[in-house]
Amino acid sequence: MPSEQERINKIIEGDVDDFRLLVEDYQRLVTHIVFRMVRNEADREEICQQVFVKVYENLKRFQGKSKLSTWIARIAYHTAMNYIQKKKVPLYGDMFDGGLREQNATFSDIIDTAKSEQDLPDEVLSRRQRDRLLIRHIYRLPIRYRLVVTLFHLDEMSYRDIGEILNLPEGTVKSYLFRARKLLKDRLLQELPEEELWR
Fold first, then answer.
1. pTM of the model
2. What is the CATH number of the domain that holds 65?
3. Residue 92 forms part of a structural domain
4. CA 134 from centre of chain
């Protein structure tokens, strides 16, 4: 396997196959960010394409001072923010997009509950219903809370990396994550009995 820097060098030299592999490696991360910020489905796809065009055009400027994933995520965040400002669309996505297939956002990812591999079918169904409810409420969080939750739990990024992407101090990232979790828990408790929430 070539190192990250070797791959970057090959892309800069015009290797299309290596760039395609880079897109495949980071497509999920870019999608997570753009889809959390932009509601219009057609615009989402266009913005994701713009992100990777910018990555390709600016790769020679990448100096390795941060992780490549952090650098790409920052491009995705700023590209989506530019779209929001130009289109003058609301910064908060208040409606859950039922068309988004978010396979990885499980209830336990956010609330830190344990899952048993021996769950009964009705328990699995109940958890899936909770997961859908959770995802809907994630979409109703303020944009930065939503991004912090996504980057921390789904993309497993550190507080430092998230801070670099969103241009926030680490302490603020921790605070946003704490508040986002509390908001999610409080809102879920309004719709589910507590024993159902923790089951």
1. 0.72
2. 1.10.1740.10
3. no
4. 15
- Per-residue confidence in pLDDT tens, the chain, 199 aa: 568 888 899 999 999 999 999 999 999 999 999 988 888 888 999 999 999 999 999 999 998 888 999 999 999 999 999 988 887 655 444 333 333 334 344 444 444 433 444 454 455 446 677 777 888 888 888 888 999 998 998 889 999 999 999 999 999 999 999 999 999 888 888 876 554 544 4
The total of other beta-carbon atoms located within 10 Å of residue 44's CB is: 19
| Other residues' Cβ atoms within 10 Å of the Cβ of residue 140 | 16
CATH code for the domain in which residue 144 is found: 1.10.10.10
Is residue 99 a part of any domain in this protein? Answer: no
Residue 160: CB atoms within 10 A of its CB come to 14
Q: Is residue 100 part of a domain?
A: no
DSSP characters over 127-180: HHHHHHHHHHHHHTS-HHHHHHHIIIIIS---HHHHHHHHT--HHHHHHHHHHH
